Amino acid sequence: MKAWLISILLTINVLAQDVTVELKVIDENKTAVKDAIVEIQQINNRQRSITDSLGLTKLIAKTGDAKITIRHLSYRQYKSNLKINTDTLIIIQLSTRLIKLNEITVTATGYKANTAEVANFVEVIDEETFDKFLPNSFSDILKTGTSIYIRDYGGTPAQLKTISLRGTGSEHTVFMLNGVRISSFQNGVFDLSLIPADVIERIEIIHSNMSSLYGADAIGGVVNVITKRKNNFTEFNIATGSFGTRKFNFNFSGSVKNLNYLASFTRNYGAGNFHYKYKLGNNEITLNRKNAHFNISDFYINFSSQNISFSTLYLRSARGIPAPTTKFDPSNTATQFDEDINLTLSITKPFASSILKANFLFKNSLLKYTNNDLIIAGSGISSYSHNLLFSGVITYLFKTNFDLLLVPGFEVSFGIANGNSFEKAKRINTGLFLTAEKKLEVQSLLTTRIYIMLRNDRFSDFGNKFIYKIGINSGIPKNPLLSLKFSYGTGFRAPTFNDLYWYGSGNKNLKPETSKSYDFGFVLFSESAKKFIKEFKFEASIFNIDITNRIVWLPSEENQNLWKPINIDEVNSRGIEFSGEIAFSNFLKLSGNFSISQSIRKNKRTADDATQNKQLIYIPKSTGNFGVHLSFEKMFLLLQTNYVGLRYTTETNDRWLQPYVVVDATFGFNYQVKLFSGSVKFSIKNLFNENYETIVGYPMPLRNYLVEFSMQIKNQTKQKGEVK
């Protein structure tokens, strides 16, 4: 009898032994779901953990029956019963709160949301899209977006490039790195050449006034650059092309216990001198652009564990600054040196039904400009500016008993600028904000989401500002999906350090620009796994932006040779934009967008002002893009057409730049040999040799090419078993 009881106890002990359960949580796109709460329940055993940036977590369980529950605010709750017999790996796929739509945004709301659910027009450009496009600069990626015009001062990777979004100025778009703003307090303009394309995982573009969430300057919209966090691979990229371009990129990633790391180094350099056409009388002659050399190096490293991520992005750029071609064959020796250090830290603390997040950024920027060809007061120009920016954002996301999603937050930033052209300046900005989302359903036939965003900012150098925004999204949460979007809100732009403190010209009495804007639109989406057309998406939006107290630099009344900034202009920007995409089977995808906009100044500066109700300079009346993506087995072909309409170059609209159409083509193939994989790509920029300028006196390159070879070695991971 005793032996029989001992045998039973030993059997129970064997059956109830501890085993390791590894879980990988993914979404419909096979993308890792971070910060999902995983819980295993058994008799006398309950374990809880949270997935890391790779969607992975480990739990200790007993052999036998178990109930698995997974919760995440952006996905439907998952529940399942499972019998566990040994150490195993379980892969679980979560469903988003709406149909997939391929795109998730965090920038439009401050938390993960489907792009079809938000109240604004959102574009998401993922790594796969621009990787096949073979961009040589960040602006190559952005110029394919809707209602976007890139002002390019030379075409090579290092030349100054700025953005116009929805007919607003470059200073009306906020740029962010991993959710924290990197736009400068000094001039409010972000140079697109200072973001390396090789470290980008995805880009989110919000076409709407977002000051109610992100504070000053977001009148036109927000561009959020999210850097790579891949794991377990080694990659080499080598490229060569026109104007002596040479490019080398090396990426390496892996993990040590619970610490994941990724390092990337890129060097891009070249003579930069390219052919352009110059009109001499009635003839066009071909000349060679001079002093366009560039040498760019950047280093990126990311460390991440379960709830913490730390990134370093260092960029060093030395470039020649070509003279404007307003005279025949100009030559100069102007140079610019930039050095940029960006440190970002992200901390996430998930709870059972809430998430606490903190993002911090330190930015150190140095710019030196020399030009000995332009003599002022008996000597050449030698200027410098040094900027330091500290920024932090803390948010707490939770749901109330009334199914109301709330995201209160606090933001603080501190900026310092030194230079020899303006007074030493500093700014402390504190902001309190609140985002609220209420979901209403009518018998699962109609879903309406109401968004309210409130924000109050205080600036140390010009005071207090309160802004708000209301948004509505109402649609049919089925396939096909149709959602209507509407938002109305206020915004503002802060005077820059240059506006306030430029030697001899700065105006410390400037007020911030204010705005009122609305946009209305819809998105239609359909997907099918069986039909010839796999996916169809069409989105349209009408927008209107009124800006008052716009800051303009004009000759002063006391001295016409001295320009000063004043609050004078009232500007209206309005238009309509369309964006669409069709995926046929697995081999053909068509995408395109088109926008028509008008940006005019409504007020009179003088009694006989001939510039009233005229289009603002360098704001195109229309822009468009059309892309064809063909793929067959391991080969692919991408054709991208960029159209930019007429742009006036004078405030009286009596001079202009002609519209242009530029076609880029990229052909390539992927390969895989055992552990090695990669691609070979050949790109022709400006396929049909279009002669054009985006800024008067700064011609763009004629036909040019780029060839890239890449090789990736993926680290193998041992799996004990797989259940899906």
What's this model, at a glance?
The chain has 724 residues and is mainly β. The chain has 5 helices and 45 strands. It holds the Pfam family TonB_dep_Rec_b-barrel.
Explain the overall architecture.
- InterPro entries: Beta-barrel_TonB, Beta-barrel_TonB_sf, CarboxyPept-like_regulatory, Plug_dom, Plug_dom_sf, TonB-dep_rcpt-like.
- Mean pLDDT is 87; it is low at 8-14 and 717-724.
- The radius of gyration is 28 Å and the shape is globular.
- The chain has five helices and 45 strands.
- The strands form nine sheets. It has a 22-stranded antiparallel barrel. A five-stranded mixed beta sheet has the order 10-15-16-13-14. A four-stranded mixed beta sheet has the order 4-1-7-45, with no helix packed on it.
- The chain has three domains: 2-93, Immunoglobulin-like; 104-224, Ferric Hydroxamate Uptake Protein, Chain A, domain 1 (Beta Complex), CATH 2.170.130.10; 225-709, Maltoporin, Chain A (Beta Barrel).
- A hairpin with a 2-residue loop joins strand 25 (354-376) and strand 26 (379-399).
